[in-house]
Design goal:
Blueprint (H helix, E strand, L loop, with lengths): L13 H10 L4 H19 L7 E5 L5 H9 L8 E3 L6 E6 L4 E7 L1 H4 L5 H11 L4 H20 L2 H4 E7 L11 E3 L6 E3 L20
Parallel strand pairs: 1-2
Antiparallel strand pairs: 1-3, 3-4, 4-5, 6-7
Helix pairs in contact: 1-3, 2-3, 2-6, 5-6
Bound molecules: zinc ion (ZN) (2 copies).
The site of one zinc ion has 6 residues, from α2.
Length: about 210
């Protein structure tokens, strides 16, 4: 039976199972994100952040971010999940009022698959070209690695340090004005020379 899709192993912690249900599949990055989020919440609170008024800043837009959202309660729609896409697995959790918080960098990815064999197996599994036994082996290997991630000491997964920086500005309000090109209403601060990103061809939905 595939373990990448529901039902998930029943011996996983309840909040990890809830995270998997939210995310929709089992993968390494959701397990890493779960560990990061749990540690970040605990460390931010220990540093004096108000756990009811947190803001998360994420450096990438991978599976881990679903765990950040599910575990911290900071979500894109509530505007307390802020993408600052540096392309790094960096996650910052701060008190939205004081800026007190923590920054985590996941160094686990630097070494976890030094010979590339896991990623090669994952590509093969996703290609659909593996037979049933090959798929089962990949799923078993992946689950074993996920179990290791769930048990690893924090220091084997990430570095964590306190931060005390201004929290990201709250992007509230929707002061809109018509675009000079298409006439559609646009958040005023997103207009450049009166034109929206689509009319500037920075975003296209052709075809
Ligand atoms: Zn995933
Ligand atoms: Zn326009």
């Amino acid at each position: 039976m595939s373990t990448s899709n529901p039902p998930y192993p029943e011996d996983f912690a309840e909040d990890f199972r809830e995270t998997l249900a939210f995310h929709g599949h089992l993968c390494l990055d959701i397990a890493v994100g779960y560990r990061v989020a749990k540690a970040a919440v605990a460390a931010a609170q220990a540093a004096g952040a108000d756990p009811t008024n947190l803001v998360a800043v994420v450096g990438n837009d991978t599976c881990a971010v679903d765990a950040i959202q599910r575990v911290t309660g900071c979500t894109f729609g509530k505007r307390n999940l802020v993408p600052r896409l540096s392309g790094k697995p960096v996650y910052v959790l701060q008190d939205a009022a004081t800026g007190v918080g923590v920054r985590l960098y996941v160094h686990f990815w630097e070494q976890f698959d030094a010979d590339g064999s896991f990623r090669a197996a994952m590509r093969a599994a996703k290609s659909g070209k593996l037979d049933a036994a090959g798929q089962a082996k990949f799923q078993a290997d992946q689950e074993a690695l996920i179990r290791r991630i769930l048990e690893m000491p924090d220091a084997d997964l990430f570095t964590l340090r306190p931060v005390h920086a201004p929290p990201p500005p709250r992007s509230g309000g929707f002061d809109a004005a018509p675009c000079a090109g298409c006439g559609e209403h646009v958040k005023r601060t997103m207009l450049v020379d009166g034109r929206c990103a689509e009319c500037r061809s920075e975003i296209t939905y052709s075809g």
